[in-house]
């Protein structure tokens, strides 16, 4: 009997030891998951904040670009003579600035199966919506090249070089102030300006291409603002502790 009691006692101790070890491992695993989840949330917040700021800047940038396009359309439909600022505006209407989202953290969550570490289902849905819309809108933001190709084939290189250098504007620069075209003029003579303006007006497809371009750019600017709202929605949930 005594031996049976001793064996039973040892068995109980072994079971308790195993349970204690399992409990400790579960506790440590939970702590590791919590720490990893917090790291993911911090990195997501950083990426979404950068995206939101970049999206806002793109929206503002392309709204100004569209404004140059509308002014050029107005001039094309008028009897006004071309001025040097007309050529600058026609060129600025063709500016572009690509957007590359920061999606490495979300992709990491998906690829590693760690998305479940984001416990808030609303946050998960917001992240999914943000990245799904982003994928669809990239095609819209690849604006057509027709107008850009036409106008850059006509506007004298002296003006193009001046805009890129003297005005501080270049593709992908993202300078909203510079793209407004507020830069010193006097690069071309009156004769050169008149010749270039006449050549622009003589292009049969330019006005149609520009009208299409402006519509696409304005639509793109709207979608940049809309995408920024989706980023801010996800950020708000993150800041609530999701």
Structural account:
- This protein is an all-alpha fold and 242 residues long.
- The chain has one domain (2-239).
- The protein is 73% helix and 0% strand.
- It has helices at 2-76, 84-92, 104-112, 121-140, 146-152, 157-165, 190-202, 206-239.
- The protein is rod-shaped.
- The relative contact order is 0.17.
Structural class category: mainly alpha
Largest sheet: none
Rounded mean pLDDT score: 83
Beta fraction:
under 5%
End-to-end Cα distance: 58 Å
Rg on CA atoms, Å? 30 Å
Residue share in helix? over 70%
Order of helices and strands: HHHHHHHH
Number of domains: 1
Helical run tally: 8
Total E-strand runs:
0
* Low-confidence region ranges: 173-178
Q: What's the shape? A: rod-shaped
Topology:
Layout: H1 2-76, H2 84-92, H3 104-112, H4 121-140, H5 146-152, H6 157-165, H7 190-202, H8 206-239
Helix pairs in contact: 1-2, 1-3, 1-8, 4-8, 5-8
Key words describing this protein structure:
242 residues, mainly alpha, 8 helices
Quick structural summary:
This protein is an all-alpha fold. The protein has helices at residues 2-76, 84-92, 104-112, 121-140, 146-152, 157-165, 190-202, 206-239. The radius of gyration is 30 Å and the shape is rod-shaped.
């Amino acid at each position: 009997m005594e031996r049976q009691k001793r064996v039973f006692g040892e068995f109980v101790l072994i079971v308790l030891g195993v349970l204690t070890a399992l409990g400790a491992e579960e506790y440590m695993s939970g702590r590791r998951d919590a720490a990893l989840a917090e790291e993911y949330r911090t990195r997501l917040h950083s990426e979404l904040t950068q995206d939101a700021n970049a999206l806002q800047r793109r929206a503002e940038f392309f709204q100004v670009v569209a404004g140059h396009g509308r002014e050029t359309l107005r001039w094309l439909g008028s009897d006004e003579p071309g001025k040097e600022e007309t050529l600058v505006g026609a060129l600025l209407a063709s500016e572009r600035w690509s957007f590359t989202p920061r999606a490495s953290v979300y992709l990491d969550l998906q690829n590693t199966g760690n998305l479940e570490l984001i416990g808030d289902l609303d946050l998960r849905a917001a992240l999914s919506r943000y990245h799904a819309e982003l994928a669809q809108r990239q095609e819209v933001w690849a604006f057509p090249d027709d107008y850009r190709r036409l106008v850059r084939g006509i506007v004298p290189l002296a003006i193009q070089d001046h805009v890129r250098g003297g005005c501080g504007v270049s593709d992908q620069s993202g300078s909203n102030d510079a793209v407004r075209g507020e830069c010193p003029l006097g690069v071309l003579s009156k004769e050169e300006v008149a010749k270039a303006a006449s050549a622009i007006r003589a292009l049969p497809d330019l006005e149609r291409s520009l009208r299409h371009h402006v519509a696409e750019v304005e639509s793109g600017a709207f979608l940049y603002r809309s995408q920024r709202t989706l980023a801010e929605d996800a950020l708000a949930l993150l800041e609530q502790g999701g």
